[in-house]
Amino acid sequence: MAHWLYKSEPSTWSWDQQVAAGAAGTHWNGVRNHVAKKHLMAMEVGERGFFYHSNEGKAVVGIVEVIRPYYPDDSDETGRFGMVDLRALEALPRPVTLEAIKAEPRLSAMVLANNSRLSVQPVTEAEWAIVRAMGGLD
DNA sequence: GCCAACGTTGGC
DNA sequence: GCCAACGTTGGC
Fold it and tell me: What contacts A99, CB < 8 A, 6 or more positions away?
């Protein structure tokens, strides 16, 4: 199973709001980038990802799970983009900051450290395990 | 608030 | 189809 990373500005959509959405989750809409779209289309129900706060916080703060695969984003009037549904699974006991990720040599290839503008990113198995451990899980 | 990186748009 | 201009993102 693949792993992912979703970026959100907390002033727009925060981890607390994601948690408040509960088991029913929410749609991850608003993606308007073709690379991010490609990742959304590849997602399968049950796949997990990191929830990252950009701008404020700049840290991985929680784990989310895909609960509905790719379907059209009705907020996109061009009809070109879609979205998935996500629910919050658990918070990281200790948020993993961008600074900490950049300081970890084993994470030097992580997309977040190299292409900070991509809003939906793939995460490798190794990166997944390292960031989870840094966050106090497992 | 600045600006580098990146994506998109539109004139040619 | 190229590329300059422009807009947006997001780290700093």
Answer: A58
pTM over 0.90: yes
Residue A99: CB less than 7 A from any atom in strand C: yes
Does the pLDDT at position A116 exceed 80?
no
- CATH fold for the domain made of A3-134: ph1033 like fold (3.10.590)
Q: With CA atoms as reference, report the closest residue to A60 among A32, A96, A28, A35.
A: A96
Q: Which nucleotide is nearest to A117 (CA to C1')?
A: C9
CB of residue A121 closer than 7 A to nucleic acid strand C?
no
Strand B at less than 7 A from CB of A32? yes
